[in-house]
Amino acid sequence: MTIRWTYAFADRPAARLADACAFWTAVTGTQLSASRGEHGQFVTLLPEGTDPAVKLQGVTEGDGGAHIDLCVEDVRESTALARRLGAGLVADHGDWAVLRSPAGQAFCAVPWHGETVRPPVVSGSRLDQVCLDVPPSRYDAESAFWAALTGWERQAGSRPEFTVLLPPPGLPVRLLLQRLGEERPASAHLDLACADIAAVRARHERLGAVAVRDGSHWTVMRDPAGGTYCLTGRDPETGGLPAGGAHREQGAGAG
Predict the structure, then answer these.
(1) Which of 7, 161, 166, 170 could pair covalently with 179 via S-S, beta carbons 3.0-4.6 A apart?
(2) How far apart are CA 112 and CA 73, in angstroms?
(3) pLDDT above 70: residue 182
(4) Whole-model pTM?
């Protein structure tokens, strides 16, 4: 399976989708697409002059979270591979499919529509990572599943609880797996690479976000729709750590 493009998907309660749209378009310097779906629950954030890489979904159950869409040339072939590796099929929509990883994390296999140019850095940050928060009993198997499914390079993170899956150059969204410190259901959140966390945090707070807590090299935030995400101390151009950490990737702990 060759993954040709990736989308970070923020899932937010449908009743607060408008708040999420207003915030994330401001953060990413984008415009909203027309709504799609049976209930108008899907929107894409459209950058100027490049291809999109972020979408939002209004959900009717739970508090939301995040997931990744894998854009492929053959959805059925990719779905079959995911199932052979241990994923469960949640919904088959014909030309796209919703699946669930062995640890229970939702993701989608969708058709590639020719996207090639990733969105730019905006105000010192770039939304470039989906972090999968995995219970410790499932972590090794989950890491192996995602590495086998994507075929991406697997690296140890900057801390022992992190594993990074690096896509080929040009893909806009990568995966980070975080081993949780307790047994609870798998979840996911979005990460932004920030040249200056304090400056980005101040901008996000002006736009309505709230800081939740600080980590060693990240800050956990809550957006106006109630979803958590992280500002991480990484180079927004390359996704890597600052000078001296080019081969050690940095994660975040919103879990």
Answers:
(1) 161
(2) 6
(3) yes
(4) 0.94
